[in-house]
């Protein structure tokens, strides 16, 4: 299980990893999968052929200009590993560019198309700032992009 822990309020997020045979008991020691400075939020894994693809987001909850690495990323591995170093070098597939109805995509999931190898539907959450002066001046949105994930060896 890949999971995120931390505090948006304190601008601290860390992606963790733990294993369990049945998903309920005997969990392995929780390990840090991605360091806090990476701002990884959710790591979604799916099998394709002999390897495994992952889509994840890097988020920005701090003040100031959104860093270029904010957005959605793809990587691949021969097996669903709890060590980030065993996954391929990530490739950014979507930036945090403000598109009016969303900026800064996060919480991705994906499904492969039944047709051509590598065609995927990537679903994500987004948000945009409203003019509401209240305590939560945002609206949440949902998006989907259809794309061909890069082919190639798992690592």
Strand-helix topology:
Elements: E1 2-7, E2 12-17, E3 31-34, E4 40-48, E5 51-58, E6 71-77, E7 91-95, E8 103-112, E9 119-129, E10 138-148
Antiparallel strand pairs: 1-2, 2-3, 4-5, 5-6, 6-7, 8-9, 9-10
Which outline best applies? globular
Strands ordered across the widest β-sheet: 4-5-6-7
Taken in chain order, the helices and strands follow as EEEEEEEEEE
What average pLDDT do the residues reach? 88
Number of strands: 10
Outline the biggest β-sheet: 4 strands, antiparallel
Q: Helical percent range?
A: under 10%
- The low-confidence parts are none
Tally of contiguous helical segments: 0
Short note summarizing the structure:
The chain is mostly beta strands. It has no helices and 10 strands. The strands form 3 sheets. The protein has a 4-stranded antiparallel beta sheet with strand order 4-5-6-7, with no helix packed on it.
């Amino acid at each position: 299980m890949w999971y995120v822990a931390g505090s948006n309020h304190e601008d601290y997020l860390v992606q963790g990893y733990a294993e369990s045979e049945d998903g309920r008991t005997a969990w392995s020691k929780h390990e840090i999968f991605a360091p806090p400075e990476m701002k990884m939020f959710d790591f979604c894994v799916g099998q394709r052929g002999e390897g495994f693809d992952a889509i994840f987001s890097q988020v920005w909850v701090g003040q100031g200009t959104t860093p270029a690495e904010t957005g959605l990323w793809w990587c691949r591995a021969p097996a669903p590993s709890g060590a980030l170093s065993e996954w391929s070098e990530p490739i950014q597939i979507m930036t945090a560019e403000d598109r009016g109805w969303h900026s800064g995509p996060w919480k991705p999931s994906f499904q492969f198309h039944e047709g051509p190898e590598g065609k995927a539907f990537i679903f994500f959450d987004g948000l945009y700032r409203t003019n509401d002066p209240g305590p939560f001046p945002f609206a949440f949105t949902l998006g989907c992009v259809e794309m061909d994930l890069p082919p190639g060896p798992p690592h």
